[in-house]
Structure prediction request, 309 residues.
Amino acid sequence: MCRAPVGEGAKRTRIGSEELAKVLIGAHVSTGGGLVNALRRGEERACEAIQIFNQSPRMWRPTRYSENDFAAFREAYAHSKIESVVIHAIYLINPAGADRSMRRKSLETLTHALWVGAGIGAEGVVVHPGALKASSRADALKRAVKFICEALAATEGCDLLIENNAGSKQLLGLGFDEIAELIERCGGGPRLGLCIDSCHLHAASFDVRTPEGVAAIADEIEARLGRQRLRYLHLNDSRDQRGALRDRHADIGKGEIGRAGFRAFLSEPRWQKLPAVLETPGPGGHGPDRKQVQLTRRLWREGVKARSK
Prediction:
């Protein structure tokens, strides 16, 4: 977990806290107008957890935050209803890339995200492990290991959460064995964790729609990485059938996973206490709104109730 700065206004981190007994449901929200506005937008959407970009996802140029920006965020966070904040690194980053210029920009950008995460007391930075391009899988994995080790060595206080991919052989993170190998070769330290995406799992042929299928996923994570590595959930329905190997998000309950599927997925006992954020298209393509967050929380409650009978 990120170690939030100590002092007035700092909010302790909550991932893995024994006092939590439910999934913390929320959404990816904009930081437009300043970091603090993300907390307000999260509260407007009835979020318990939020995810943000620390800079424009379409540009390499970092947003230059000051220590005053961080202090203002921590103070607002400490008095907000938001229980968890995580940063998603921008999609331009490729830890497995061979091009030297691209690797330099990627490393600078990820290091910046980890610095911002530590500054605001976020619980981690989610990153995709990278694309092979024209490389062999072994060479791409070797480069990703070196890249991640450099990013961790250059920063402190904020976790790095590796996200599973949707089954493409052109991307690293193809199954939990490969993510486990990546983490192990990076030293297996406590700052390395796992983020799983419901749409990615579904696209990669995992069964996320039944309690038995979700339990099998949890079993595999425990066996390959250890239960403590799972820190974060991305909640996305899928426009495509299971095993399609395509990462195309749909609003919760409006895709192939469906409402019944999310009841099963969210109510898995080993998911409880974890933050779970929607990255869905939302109305007009503007992201998840309050109704979607509330629907997802209702599906969680219904799933838990069904399991208790």
Notes: DSSP finds nine helices and ten strands in the chain.
